[in-house]
Amino acid sequence: MKKIYITLVTIFLLTITLTVSGIAWFNISNNSLIDDISLKAGSGDLLELSLDGKNFNKTLDEKVIKEKLKKLKFKDITTQDGFNFFKNPYQTETQRAIPNIDYISIEVWFRVIAQVEDQKDKHVFLANGKNHAYEIENKTGTFITSKGKRWESDIDFKYSDHQMIKKNEVNTYYAKDAMRIGVNHKDENKFIYDVSNDENRGYGKAFGAYDYYNQKNKETLRLPVETPKNQIYELSAWDKEEAGIVNHNQSYIMTLEKQDSYYIGQATINIWLEGWDPDAFDAILNDHVMIQLEFITARKATNS
Questions:
Q1: What's the half-sphere exposure (Cβ side, CA atoms, 13 Å) at 107?
Q2: Which end of the chain has the least Cβ crowding within 10 Å, N or C?
Q3: Is residue 123 in some structural domain?
Q4: Could you please report the per-residue DSSP string of 158-194?
């Protein structure tokens, strides 16, 4: 008889009105208003969440999350390792970014009831990446989406390797295209997810915001020599051929460990505006952003 594996899903939902700093590495005073925050487990599964490792529930206290983020004012920051964040493009020690002031950083505990001694579906993934329009209701999966802002360029600059933006040209730009989600477990950065899913417009490119900054200020920033470790552009998803297993392990976070009658684990979720992204310039000032993270427990892919 075919064994059926229980699907364990949790949704981490943040609806944020985002105000970010302007031209790349020009730190402008800004504000960020939290409209709605919800962390909840999928109905009918065994997964529970906690913000303190003690009080677990299907739905976490929204007031506690808002309290953690009450001083949040997104700035364009950068990191090479997913642990150390800087407000300066050259990552100087005097310009360290501050968690939940310059970027989001939340500790989340996961647990499931131990059903059998060698439980197979105890591996946690950030999963099911989606590309949703901001206006669509009942969005599913993991996504960062934004309304976008219309912006008229005041200079000519190189938008990509093959496209120039001319002075007075009007286009819509999106904060979501410069956002990152990083996950740390214990002393290891598991991955940094570029939400744009576009490696061609990834970290440290010599166009977009970088070229705009140089043209605007008649100077040249030094591009970073190294790129961040563990960058990914696609999240794991359910395998189409076999139930209870993911298609690849790129966004694997951890394996829950047995503690009494539960399998338990903890991870740090970081969300930030990457200053070395080509889309991190003043066009996205005051864009409205929605963030939703979907975690699943599943068996690992064997071919990844």
A1: 7
A2: N
A3: yes
A4: EEETTEEEPTT-EEEE-GGGGEEEEEEETTEEEEEEE
**Residue type, position 193, single letter:** Y
| Domain with 271 in it | 8-298
Whether 2 is in a domain gets the answer: no
Rounded to two decimals, what is the model's pTM?
Answer: 0.89
In a domain, 177, yes or no: yes
Domain-located, residue 53: yes
CA distances (Å), 227 to each of 22, 54, 265, 299, in order?
23, 37, 29, 30
Amino acid at 90: Y
Tell whether the model's pLDDT for residue 115 goes beyond 90: no
Q: Are strands 188-194 and 231-232 parallel, antiparallel or unpaired?
A: parallel
pLDDT at 7 over 50: no
d(CA 5, CA 25): 48
Q: How far apart are CA 188 and CA 177, in angstroms?
A: 25
